[in-house]
What we know:
- By secondary structure, the chain is α+β, with helices and mostly antiparallel strands.
- The chain has one domain: 4-Layer Sandwich (Chorismate synthase, AroC fold).
- It has 12 helices and 18 strands.
- The protein has helices at 31-41, 83-86, 98-103, 119-126, 132-138, 143-159, 188-193, 201-216, 246-255, 268-271, 362-385, 390-407; strands at 4-8, 15-21, 25-28, 58-62, 64-65, 68-70, 74-79, 163-171, 174-175, 223-230, 260-265, 283-285, 303-305, 313-314, 317-318, 323-329, 340-342, 349-351.
- A 5-stranded antiparallel β-sheet has the order 9-8-10-16-11. Strands 1-2-7-4 form a 4-stranded antiparallel β-sheet, with helices on one face.
- The longest helix is centred in the C-terminal third of the chain and has 24 residues, at 362-385.
- It is globular, with a radius of gyration of 23 Å.
- Residues 289-299 have low confidence and may be disordered.
- Residues 116-118, 138-140, 143, 257-259, 332-334, 357-358, 361, 364-365, 368 line the site of flavin mononucleotide.
Amino acid sequence: MTLRYLTAGESHGPALVGILEGLPAGIAVTTADVAAELARRRLGYGRSPRMDFESDRLEVLGGVRHGRTLGSPVALVIHNTEWPKWTQVMAVDPPDDAEAAAASARGATLTRPRPGHADLVGMQKYRFDDARDVLERASARETATRVALAVYAKALLAEVGVTVVSHVVSIGEVAVPDDTLIPGPGDLTAIDADPVRCADPATSARMRERIEAARAGRDTLGGVVEVAAHGLPPGLGSHVHWDRKLDTRLAAALMSVQAFKGVEVGDGFRTAATPGSQAHDEIDAAEDAADDVGDGGGGGARFRRRTHRAGGIEGGMSTGEVLRVRGAMKPLSSLTQPLATVDVATGEPAEAITQRSDTCAVPRAGVVCEAVVALVLADALLEKTGGDHLAEVRRNLDAYVDDVRRRLPRPGGGEPAR
Length: 418
Ligand SMILES: Cc1cc2nc3c(=O)[nH]c(=O)nc-3n(C[C@H](O)[C@H](O)[C@H](O)COP(=O)(O)O)c2cc1C
């Protein structure tokens, strides 16, 4: 792995922490860029007021000087503005007054694990009596760190003409009518402006109605998010080993997002029910070299696919066409009508803990999916190009793309260069 990252921190702890290692020097990113991306993660219909507490103060502690990366690890902290309320309950050291902390509403031992959360199995595995010791870290607040770190990955990708766009394709049973339409980089502003981050306004209105109905019924909803990457060169990832395949890495990244239970590359599940004659992307020679750069960025092959069914990945490598992956998010497990559980303190049947919860987190989960996809693509790019400075990444990529162009035969004749 060329670009790697770690996150740490509990949901109600003093801060979330992230480190991103392996970035080249010379990428322009400001703290304001990172803060803007964190604000995108807070967008979305179906949220609870609780999310206000997530507008927390960002601090970049290393890896960047005067707005440019240094090639050293990027270290950042997202401070928890609610921390003063949690200093005793989430104290790192034994609390000054343990009894008072335990007696407070926040400090009460949580013994009624929520189905669909890490609570019960985490208590079993780690020998905890209090579900808080599990849920604080299992919480999707952790994804704020990944969204923040991905800003650097996105900035690197942007420098070589790659843009990652996410949008919501379904919420509950309400889906966009034509799910073959792939939003481009120019659509991102409109998608972010939409309350559910859906590219189709009519479907967006129906999605919001569906969320309102779920909220009224004290229920929650899941959905499907698509992430498209435009401008990729062919050949990121590799067919030679399972863990080098780009689709392997993207699937793992999407599945690592809390509540994501399914991943699809291109038309993955649909093609399983489609005859082979209609399931693949037939190849044409591109007439004009200028027109052959994948879907608009750093492509370079003298070929075009007629369709995008494979999602821009063949044999574990990017094809240079638009890359398309989807993730299916389950409905949120914390309901205001609590599910049945067992009180682990007594062994008696009980109602699960009710935590304030959203009705639907699919819109902002899309921003998280976009982030984890960007981190994988930036890693795969650097693996292909190497480079300690952005200029070296660019130079190596250009040389590779140029080589791909020159080495393959021109349509209508012409000697390939060797
Ligand atoms: C952006 C985002 C927000 C989430 N918000 C909630 C929430 O408000 N309530 C909830 O019950 N689960 C929420 N989740 C999902 C839980 O974190 C997740 O279901 C839980 O940690 C168990 O992990 P698993 O579903 O991956 O097995 C959210 C997930 C994401 C990606």
